[in-house]
Amino acid sequence: MPILGPNQYGKAENRVVKITRDGATHHIKDLNVSVSLSGDMDEVHYSGSNANVLPTDTTKNTVYAFAKEHGIASAEQFGIHLARHFVTSQEPIRTARIRIEEYAWERIATAGEDAHSFVRQGQETRLTQITYDGSSWEVVSGLKDLTVMNSTNSEFWGYVKDKYTTLPEAYDRILATEVAGRWRFNWSDDEQATPDWETSYEQVKKHMLKAFAETYSLSLQQTLYQMGSRIIDHRAEIDEVRFSLPNKHHFLVDLEPFGLKNATEDGAVYFAADRPYGLIEATILRDGCEPRIPVDLTNL
Amino acid sequence: MPILGPNQYGKAENRVVKITRDGATHHIKDLNVSVSLSGDMDEVHYSGSNANVLPTDTTKNTVYAFAKEHGIASAEQFGIHLARHFVTSQEPIRTARIRIEEYAWERIATAGEDAHSFVRQGQETRLTQITYDGSSWEVVSGLKDLTVMNSTNSEFWGYVKDKYTTLPEAYDRILATEVAGRWRFNWSDDEQATPDWETSYEQVKKHMLKAFAETYSLSLQQTLYQMGSRIIDHRAEIDEVRFSLPNKHHFLVDLEPFGLKNATEDGAVYFAADRPYGLIEATILRDGCEPRIPVDLTNL
Amino acid sequence: MPILGPNQYGKAENRVVKITRDGATHHIKDLNVSVSLSGDMDEVHYSGSNANVLPTDTTKNTVYAFAKEHGIASAEQFGIHLARHFVTSQEPIRTARIRIEEYAWERIATAGEDAHSFVRQGQETRLTQITYDGSSWEVVSGLKDLTVMNSTNSEFWGYVKDKYTTLPEAYDRILATEVAGRWRFNWSDDEQATPDWETSYEQVKKHMLKAFAETYSLSLQQTLYQMGSRIIDHRAEIDEVRFSLPNKHHFLVDLEPFGLKNATEDGAVYFAADRPYGLIEATILRDGCEPRIPVDLTNL
Amino acid sequence: MPILGPNQYGKAENRVVKITRDGATHHIKDLNVSVSLSGDMDEVHYSGSNANVLPTDTTKNTVYAFAKEHGIASAEQFGIHLARHFVTSQEPIRTARIRIEEYAWERIATAGEDAHSFVRQGQETRLTQITYDGSSWEVVSGLKDLTVMNSTNSEFWGYVKDKYTTLPEAYDRILATEVAGRWRFNWSDDEQATPDWETSYEQVKKHMLKAFAETYSLSLQQTLYQMGSRIIDHRAEIDEVRFSLPNKHHFLVDLEPFGLKNATEDGAVYFAADRPYGLIEATILRDGCEPRIPVDLTNL
Question: Catalytic residue at B27?
Fold first, then answer.
């Protein structure tokens, strides 16, 4: 008889918006929360008995109730509350994994004192994943859809050439990518002090952007390493960083047939291609640490 | 024999990125340009004769060549160059319609003097559509995907109740929408001075956001009217505004079964729904002007 | 004071699934229904008074209640019921427009007599739009996302060449497109017999596909005309057809650098491009009829 | 100094269409091919030296050249050719992973003998992933976006109830899901005979659908187990199956306020919800085999 391997279940993509009022000044947290539970779940697969199954509908209710009861200090803190609850309150549940997307809003400037109007920032989506097995924690945070470009200071040459190689070497090209990044915290134990999750996120994003901008790049791999390395060097709370960086190709358009010179040094016209794209993926580790972020990044 | 009605053709979604270098400071324009031509095109439909057809591939080449030759001062100005070219250079082409999406980038702060690093802003997408028939111009600009929210100062009551009405009245609700807007300029003639397209866009967006934030709303229709009306009142170059505003419902979650009070006045928890959504669409006109923006807004 | 132009409102994207049981054999209708109402709606825009406003929530309830009360014989018939109801039951509402997407399902073959298992077909999405102003009807049906390809019998040559033309002529190319089509019925009056909507749809799709496949094409415009023309010729209930056909380019890959001949006559390897794409749009009319389908097709 | 962890690079989403001509009868293969290479790649990350880097552009060229040279008997066979080439032809490359999406086309029925017209089937997308490290092979195939529904024979009751549980038990509900599945072949060695990849895919899909349709379901987990188990039992070439099954909720609409009874036994009206959704994920293994398919399924 075929046997059951790794499994999990829960309610995905619970969209929760929490407004906090501080007089006329309102604050907003806008999350998309996914719950995955695992444990003693053989019977529900083999016979359909739900005796050990907390309904996914209940996990949804818990998300909304906790947003009211505990508030949302940060996505990470909220996920920790939820994960702890599921693992400690139901015996058959051994592990909980909470994934959260967070959407940022900024204030709309208005004439009066009121501050309850917001416009969605729309840049990157912030991410976190909390995993708890009853004894230790793993927190991996990250972001996706952050598009960046250097319009110069990127080269690509000196590569292997085989019979299928036709690419000319480039000494001044556009380097653009849509950053998907994840970073793992070394916090794993309730005895340790938790990081300041909000500050950590802002600082990681800042270092990532600066490393992208300030690296004179001979390959996207080199830029990726600098981005990860700078985070490890500046943020003691993080042991591992992984990036998946599509090389969003911008091809110099051949305008010679029309009697026009299109050269990078004068400012140039590019075709921004969709597919195919180079895809560069790597993990950067604090020396002595093991890689645990999976090879393939997934959104939620 | 069935006969040919309205028709047009061209190359859609030409992705063009133009870098301009001012020493170490680079500037960027990032557009998605779609060309549609119409005119004396019966034969290509009836018999397949391409004798009057400028290939869509040629219209693509023209977009890239013009970006180099003329630069891109603004999406509107670039579209005007292109439309004029197609109508005046090919006898069978009587009308050209150029549609452009523009993606905004902001600079990444860096240590040195270099300024060639950018992060995509990611908020709204700016739009324009230029139509030229050889004698007069129509310019309709706009935006899409600008998500805004008021966390209070919105009510909804006093409506019609029929046998299918179950909705309770609301005296303090979230009002959120994803703005799709278009506005038509009254510039139509080469003899008139052209508006300052860049300033106009920034000001329209500013007025739209302020009107959204500062209106105490009894209905989304009222908010929409205020948004359009404020643009007409402040921007003399614009005669018509149309909005398509989905009512992005945020439902107060019922937490009573869990012994929790979830009331707007204390700050509350909401479920952000996807579908269905209310959809409010209307045109606001300068007094004496005719509506010309189509009832259905389309993206490109 | 700025004045109100064309406006409408309603609940969009009501997802309704209706199961009908005929013993152990079940039938399914799976629709996405959008309601738009217009009429005497000045005050809700100017002052926020909702005295003439039937809530969009009520229009949603009506969709679900009607699915139970009247069933869903076809998307068109269902839309007619809804539109008539809104216009005749509320004095301030003068016009109703109902848009419907329909998703097709086919049965999964099973061992027993039961027939309640379905797999979504996933090919095109069927569309209809019903407009009623209290006296006359307009029904425009259609489809989107139907991708078709001819791997030969397509040429493109004899076109205009200007200074920006570099495209070589083609005597054997792939012709592929993703059909978006709309067709307008000449039924407009309750006194006329209604068409058999289900049969009409199947026949229109069949003729469209056969015309695409059997036309030896000198231009995509010619193929488009044949597709529309064949519908007009075979379906007396239809007076107007409009297509928006992206030319989904398949470029012959240059394999000469690798010593390989890649010629269409031997079967060839193509790069399927995303953007840019040619876009061909046209209306085909029964002789003597006026075009009424808007130039820009919209999804819902 | 931070150190480099797991990494890979290559060209993603190479869209390749191969036409094969058998007289007037054409055949089509339509793939989206992604190449990922890894090996001795420290230097390109640390110093930017590309001395060991075969350009991603070259991997793209190789995909197109191989489609011509070797043809595409199946996605799996094509991936095996590519993976072997990269690992055996470049010393620094130790492992190649090829991911392929395949889009199915069916013929359009036409009058004549010609058979070169196709319509895209549009149902599921077929997937495969080939990994080769120079000595052993891993082939994981699968599909995504296959939406299925049982309109009865599904129950859900007898579950755990805690203080956040409000869900009523259900004795006759709709069960619908969008299948994402992967299955791992036990072929791993060039000495073994390869499976018939095309037959295998068709049979796996058939068994999966039948198991979904014929299982009287007490939980989606039970249905999932039956789907995987049936594949393991019928297909000796497969040792492991993993599914990610969103529970696409169809909620019975409450029509009581309108005096209507909406009961499943009479055929009923449902609201098809988008988010949140239950998400059920599990692996089913041939007894004695180890799980190797990652917990999170990724598209390409």
Answer: no
